[in-house]
Design brief:
Structural class: mainly alpha
Shape: flat
Number of helices: 8
Order of helices and strands: HHHHHHHH
Radius of gyration: 17 Å
Length: 128
């Protein structure tokens, strides 16, 4: 994962962030966790973007958390959308921003659907 991360692989950065967060095979290191989350998020990794939002929430920086979750939700990340729904009810997200994010989330989810993908999903269910 280290070599792949050095080459800019977003998934590798995300994996390293998890290792540093949990102290799995490496010494637990919050700064390295966040660094690798940031690199993965820049690379388009939605779960990393979501996790960055969670880190910001833990540090009472809700404005920053909301920004991360909006980006991830617009890319189709469901948990980010769920968090934004709570933030909207608490008055932390405007109606306009939440509506725009909801539309973008739906578009991202729709963009991942295709007859081939749905057929593969059905075939996978049959094989289990």
């Amino acid at each position: 994962a280290n070599k792949a991360a050095e080459l800019g692989d977003a998934a590798a950065h995300f994996q390293l962030s998890c290792l540093y967060d949990e102290g799995q095979g490496v010494e637990k290191d919050a700064k390295k966790n966040v660094y690798h989350l940031e690199q993965a998020a820049i690379g388009g990794h939605t779960k990393a973007r979501y996790n960055l939002g969670c880190v910001e929430e833990e540090n009472d920086r809700m404005d920053r958390a909301v920004k991360h979750w909006i980006i991830a939700a617009k890319l189709g990340h469901d948990d980010s959308l769920d968090n934004l729904s709570v933030c909207f009810r608490r008055g932390l997200v405007s109606k306009e921003d939440f509506a725009a994010t909801l539309r973008a989330h739906q578009a991202a989810v729709e963009a991942t659907k295709s007859p081939q993908r749905e057929a593969a999903e059905e075939a996978r269910k049959v094989c289990q």
